[in-house]
Amino acid sequence: MYRLLLTTSYAESWRYNILVTLSLQNSEGEQVGYCSTEDSPLPIDSNCDEAPQGWSRRRTVSLDFEPCNKVRFYIYLLPNSIPQSVTLAGEQTTFPLQVKIESGDKTLFNDKIEVNRFGGCGKEFVVSL
Question: Structurally, how many domains does the chain consist of?
Answer without folding.
Answer: 1
